[in-house]
Structures are given as C-alpha cells and as structure tokens.
Specification:
CATH superfamily: Class I glutamine amidotransferase (GATase) domain
Distance between the termini: 14 Å
Helix content: 25-40%
CATH topology: Rossmann fold
CATH architecture: 3-Layer(aba) Sandwich
Strand content: 25-35%
Order of helices and strands: EHEHEHHEHEEEEEEEEEEH
Number of helices: 6
Structural class: alpha/beta
Largest sheet: 8 strands, mixed
Number of domains: 1
Length: 214
C-alpha cells in the first residue's frame, strides 16, 4: 500500500510523513509513505494525505499551481474513493470557500466555509494554540476507533471550518464555543488539529487511517 503525502509548498511535511511511518510500523504490512508533488503519483496512490499550514488562499493557490494536481485529487478521492486525510489547512481546503483576505474557492468536497475563529470569551487568544479536549460525535467511525471524548489533541489555528451540515462534524472542541475538530464524509476525513503533534491520540488516529479500507 502506498500513501501519498502531497507536497505543495505548505506544511511540515516531514513531521507528518514521519508520524505516518511510525503508525505504519505499528500497523504492520507493506506500507510506503511517499512525499510527492506529482499528480500522477497522487492519482495512483492507495491513500492520500494533504497537510497544510498558513493562509487558506496561499494553500489553495499552491495546490492549484501543481500541474494537474487538482484534477488528480478529484479523480482519486471523489472518482475512485481513495481514503483521504486532510490536516489543519489541508482539512479546511475541503470546504466550499475560505474567507481570509477575500474569498477563495476551496475544493468543495464538504459544504461550508472557513472563517475567523471568534471565541465568546475575549480572554481566549488567537491563534488557538495548544492542547484541547475532543468531543467525539461519530463514535462508530473506523478512523476514530478507540479515541474517546476527552482525548487531547494539539491545535494551532486562527480560522475554523463552519460546516453547512452538522453531520459532517465528527468531533468538536470547545474554545469559547464549539469548533470543528474533525470533519468528514464518505472516504474523506480531516482534522483541524495536528495528529503528528498529538502524541497518543494522533498516532491512534493515523494507525486507524492506515487500516481504513472503505
């Protein structure tokens, strides 16, 4: 099995790849983790991971600048139902649009938009940075197996994914109000937090993702 981690100039790719390699060693079997900017390699991958840090607009522009990448992603993830994991801004890019220094169109895979995080408590700082508890909603989802409400994950973000359909929110966190921590549908899943920085919770999620063959 080959897992493609997309290199489009945004994100701590090495950390994500190393965490996936560690999870793969735990899972066993022949799993190759490949960091690539090649549309052809992404199109033929068994699973796809899209990390991301920074501004929504910069990230979608970087992804779109890779020759044929948007088309390859759509073919693999939507057309061929390859399991997909978006991390942080990589998760946000699944939205219809992002509102940051203007409106930027996203991949449009999960209805909703990404906008500024506005906690109800003015004492809470932006960006939301550090450990927070997860509230698991999709308790039966295979990628969340063994991860209970109250598990801690590591967040670094100033914008949040507001899903049009509440059923797309698989887990939330409280930061002056509920924020989407994990979203998904079909063979797509994304985390607002960084699993590669989330220790036991993050590794459990990555192991589950690698075992996920819907």
């Amino acid at each position: 099995m080959r897992v493609a981690v997309i290199d489009y100039g945004s994100g701590n790719l090495r950390s994500a790849a190393k965490a996936l390699e560690r999870a793969a060693a735990d899972v066993g079997g022949a799993v190759t983790v490949e960091v690539t900017g090649s549309a052809a390699r992404v199109r033929s991958a068994d699973q796809i991971v899209l990390p991301g840090v920074g501004a929504f607009g910069d990230c979608i522009a970087g992804l779109s600048a890779l020759d044929g990448m948007r088309e390859a992603l759509t073919e693999a993830v939507i057309g061929r139902a390859r399991p997909f994991l978006g991390i942080c801004v990589g998760m946000q890019l699944m939205a219809d649009r992002g509102i940051e220094h203007g409106v930027r169109e996203g991949l449009g895979w999960i209805a909703g938009e990404v906008g500024p995080l506005r906690p109800s408590d003015p004492a809470l700082k932006i960006p939301h940075m550090g450990w927070n508890e997860l509230g698991i909603r999709a308790k039966d989802h295979p990628v969340l197996a063994g991860i209970e409400s109250g598990a801690h994950a590591y967040f670094v973000h100033s914008f949040t994914f507001r899903c049009a359909n509440g059923g797309a929110v698989y887990a939330d966190a409280d930061y002056g109000g509920s924020i989407a921590a994990i979203v998904g549908r079909d063979t797509l899943i994304g985390t607002q937090f960084h699993p590669e920085k989330s220790q036991a919770t993050g590794l459990a999620l990555l192991r589950n993702f690698l075992r996920w063959h819907p």
